[in-house]
Amino acid sequence: MKNICLYFQVHQPFRLRNFPFFDIGENGDYFDEAANIALLKKVALKCYLPTNKLLLDLFRKHGKDFRVSFSISGTILDQFERYMPEVIESFRKLADTGNVEFLSETYAHSLAALKSKEEFIRQVNSHAEKIETLFGQRPLAFRNTELVYADFIGETVHEMGYKVMLTEGADWVLGWKSPNHLYSSHVHPNLKLLLKNYRLSDDIAFRFSDRNWKEWPLTSDKFINWLNAIPEEEEIVNLFMDYETFGEHQWTETGIFDFLEEFPDRVLRQNFEFITPSEAAFLPDKGHLTIPYPVSWADEERDLTAWLGNDMQQDAFDTLYELEDKVVNCQDVQLKKDWLYLQTSDHFYYMCTKHFSDGDVHKYFNPYESPFDAFINYMNVLADFSLKLDRDLVHHKAFPPQSFKEREKIPVSQPGI
Amino acid sequence: MKVLMFGWEFPPHISGGLGTACQGIVKGLIHHDVNVVMVVPKAYGDEGTERFRLLSAENVPVSSSGFYAKKLKEKLRFFEINSPVLPYIHPDEYEQYFKSLPSKTNPGSLGDPGTVSFRFSGQYGTGLMTEVWNYALVAGEIARTNDFDIIHAHDWLSFPAAILAKSISNKPLIVHMHSTEFDRAGENVNHQIFEMERQAMESADQVIAVSGFTKQIIVDKYHIHPSKVIPIHNAVEQLQEAPAVKTGKRSGEIIISYLGRVTFQKGPEYFIEAASKVLNKDNRFRFVMAGNGNLLNKMIEMTARLRISKRFHFTGFLKGDQVGRLLSMSDAYVMPSVSEPFGISPLEAMQHRIPTIISKQSGVQEILRNVIKVDFWNTDAMANAIYGIGSYTGISNSLANGGMAEVQSLSWNNQSKKMKNVYQQFVA
């Protein structure tokens, strides 16, 4: 018996408006509302709404046999509530079928886990509350931003009571091992790990419409054959991908919706079952994994270099989290929200200077012409934000203690890779 | 394969941008087993190796100059010898040049009966059109008496020569556009030069442009068919020694530099406007404009009018080691050119690990990633970039390191290989 675990990531950031240095200290706002609304509408019409509708039909057709899981970031939930509440409604319909598991993540789709345990916990909790309020279920499984995982993150996630966490089945983590098993964290064996099968996942998410790919066109029958070819003793295949794969990264014309429509039927005709992450946590455990350096699902390297690989990204990241104590002491709700939205990983992704083979993916929905523009704009916003923060603190006589906490430096790539 | 090359400059005799580029091209071609004969107006003695000969037009006696002159008149319309044209300088600078150069170019002296040798200054002086004409006659003689496979000519001064050489030898002609009259003169083009450029490109078998930017001008303004124009970007010689350590700077100050001629083409006023915008917000910055040109006095007045003179400095023309010193003090280099066919100076700044801002109206921006690109007229964006580099250490490190690595990967060998491929299309 083989299990298929489908998880879809739903996320959009709050993109920043053009913020030249003239605007520092001028009390302006930070986000490009028009662009954010326009992009959300575009993606909702091409992907979220039609795919939700298709899934609802499939749930009606297959009943409890077809199950999927979603991780929906707090930033996109805020955008839905503000600009397109009908999308929340359509997810709620999916939730009501009982065929959907909602995963836990950081509210801002942030990299807080790498910098501040306190902020990480705050965001995970506020996200869980949001999911419970909107969809009536408290998340049991955890998925960190961009599938970032390392032992020290597993430790925190375990402390918070989660039993299972999703991450990337990167070659440098697994070595000769297969991603198609349940593993556990060596720091806390009670925390189970589900590893993305990146080859099969990316066949759908990235290569589906690539006419230069030797397997094009990818049919559901072909895909089932590949699943069948997996050795009998490997009991779970984790297919993790952006939800935007359906209709946005892969357009309707590529046949992606037909593929999705046929997929559960083909899978269920074999000796396969659909499973969600918290159900998968009860499978037999194939042993411990030690992951001392952070792994992620991005690019060939599958490390942090897409977000924290260059000086600009590290400078911006450090500057952002130096403000944490001030934000905690600040009274202003809007400033707290701004700080949250500024933590979204996309802002750092836009500053990435690794070009080459990953360039196309990095360009996706990127509002900037170059990583340098992205950095300067972000830093101008942070400079202004910091001024606003100081004004608020002076106003409320709530300056934090003088010295900020020194935090450990986290390696962004595995040494020697 | 043997190429007959025509150019007005070649180091060490004149080392402007054009000469430096020609030298890079020649070195690269030699590396790819192409033999080169380079004809310049004036070289001090023939020099060369088996693969390369630098030929001085002065040293070539011309046997039947009347025949060549007639032929050239047939081939090239609108040629007037008596127009005093200065190709790379503005009319305002004309007077200075007029004074500094020998007033007359020697029309030549009789040697053997029936032959004549011409004298050349090889400069951009008052007798320039005469020199261009005589240089072409010499080219006719060289084309008739030498064996070669293809002709390659660099910029308009050598174009009459190239046209005549082609018509006499019937060999394929490659015309290489390092700059166009529109870059040099803005909209006030000299029609005679424009015509020479246009006719040379018309009669050429292939045109090489130093950038896509220049190709676009060639297509739009000279109406040359796009398929005839191939962009091959310039490269840069690698530094022989490591750049100097940053020195001589007062702590806490941020120095932003402009290095180049102070002329319309280079856009100095946009740099000043951006400087003023930065200084209105933040007075940690200092700005330096190094170079000379016909707009210099206007620019000095402009900084006074904007009340930024105390933080904006003019150095005049800087010599070799002074350039290195200024770069080593600089926190950023700005090239705000209005129209720059290629633009080698940002590459030199990047070799010195200086974060660099360049205008999008330049050819060099097409091949660079680790720079900030702005439209020359968008002084808000320019100011924002300057402020960012001066304020946030992350970006200055990224640009400095990334930029230096990027420039190290540019090589004349690669670019000359592309030129050899062009030759091979026309040479069996």
Strand-residue proportion of chain B: 15-25%
Q: Which bin fits the share of residues in helices of chain B? A: 40-55%
Rounded mean pLDDT score of chain B? 87
What is the total tally of β strands of chain B?
A: 16
Short descriptors:
heterodimer, A: 417 residues, alpha/beta, five-stranded parallel sheet, 45% helix, B: 428 residues, eight-stranded mixed sheet, six-stranded parallel sheet, 15 helices, 16 strands, 16% strand, elongated
Description:
The complex is a heterodimer of chains A (417) and B (428). Chain A is of the alpha/beta class and 417 residues long. The model of chain A has no long low-confidence stretch (mean pLDDT 92). The longest helix of chain A is centred in the first third of the chain and has 30 residues, at 33-62. Chain A has helices at residues 33-62, 74-83, 85-96, 117-135, 151-159, 171-174, 198-205, 220-228, 256-269, 277-280, 305-308, 311-322, 324-329, 333-342, 345-349, 359-363, 371-395; strands spanning 2-10, 68-72, 100-102, 141-143, 164-168, 182-185, 192-196, 236-242, 272-275, 285-289. In chain A, strand 4, helix 5 and strand 5 form a beta-alpha-beta unit. Chain B is an alpha/beta fold and 428 residues long. Helices cover 42% and strands 16% of the residues of chain B. Chain B has helices spanning 17-31, 65-75, 91-100, 128-145, 159-169, 181-185, 191-203, 212-222, 268-281, 296-305, 320-329, 345-351, 379-391, 393-408, 412-426; strands spanning 2-6, 35-40, 47-48, 52-56, 109-110, 116-117, 150-154, 173-177, 206-209, 229-231, 254-259, 285-290, 312-316, 332-335, 356-359, 372-374. In chain B, strand 14, helix 12 and strand 15 form a beta-alpha-beta unit. The radius of gyration of chain B is 22 Å and the shape is elongated. The N and C termini of chain B lie close together (10 Å).
Quick structural summary:
The complex is a heterodimer of chains A (417) and B (428). By secondary structure, chain A is an alpha/beta fold. Chain A contains 17 helices and ten strands.
